Amino acid sequence: MPQRTTWTTVLFLYEDERLRRIEQTKQRGFHVGIWWNDAKRLVACLQSIDEIEAVGHLIDSDLSHDSAWETVCHELSCHEGSEYFHIPRGRIVWDTVNRAGILYHGNSTPAIALNKLSRIYRLPRWEARLDEHYLIDEALEDFYRLE
Predict the structure, then answer these.
(1) Would you state the torsion angle of the CA atoms of residues 126, 131, 134, 137, taken in this order, to the nearest 10 degrees?
(2) Mean pLDDT score of the chain, rounded to an integer?
(3) By the 8 A CB rule, do 14 and 61 touch?
(4) Lowest mean pLDDT across 4-8, 29-33, 94-98, 100-104
(5) What is the count of structural domains for the chain?
(6) pTM, rounded to two decimals
(7) Is 23 within a domain?
(8) Please, which residues have CB within 8 angstroms of residue 53's CB and are 6 or more apart in sequence?
(9) Which pLDDT score is estimated for 1?
């Protein structure tokens, strides 16, 4: 039996250097961007690959988690003074050579969230990559612990 998501999905589109909330049905084409996923919500900030000039073979969004936080934190029941890196998050880039998405994520991202993200960003093919930049909680502390 397929797994079901238990969270609400909230989408933002980044264009003209600003984020605006959109409905799922309005997105077209491949996208890159950033996202957060807590126990209640999946918040995705999308940017069309058609609006980004490729540098090398990877297309990455202009968005950063810290710059988008003020806009999206309320969707995650957080306030602007809280830190964006305490909630599981990641980034999606487009590989122009392999024509596939790369979903960078941390230690707290379930497989069902990665599958949902691939559909949201409309990726025909993709691979997930664990990235220490997105680790949280004890895994982050263990990574930086000096022995």
Answers:
(1) 120
(2) 88
(3) yes
(4) 4-8
(5) 1
(6) 0.88
(7) yes
(8) none
(9) 46
* Terminal-residue alpha carbon distance, the chain: 44
Whether 2 is covered by a domain: the verdict is no
Select from 66, 51, 54 the least CA-distant residue to 15. 51
Contact between 41 and 7 under an 8 Å Cβ cutoff? The reply is: yes
Alpha-carbon distance of 119 to 92, in angstroms, equals 12
Radius of gyration of the chain (CA): 15
pLDDT for residue 55: 80
Residue 32 lies in a domain: yes
Contact 52, 59 (CB under 8 A): yes
Q: Considering the chain, what percentage of its residues have pLDDT values greater than 70?
A: 87
Query: Residue 27: pLDDT band by 50, 70, 90 thresholds?
Result: low
Quote the domain boundaries for residue 122: 8-144
Asked, for residue 3, whether it belongs to a domain, the answer is: no
Residues 6+ apart with CB under 8 A from 7: 37, 38, 39, 40, 41, 42
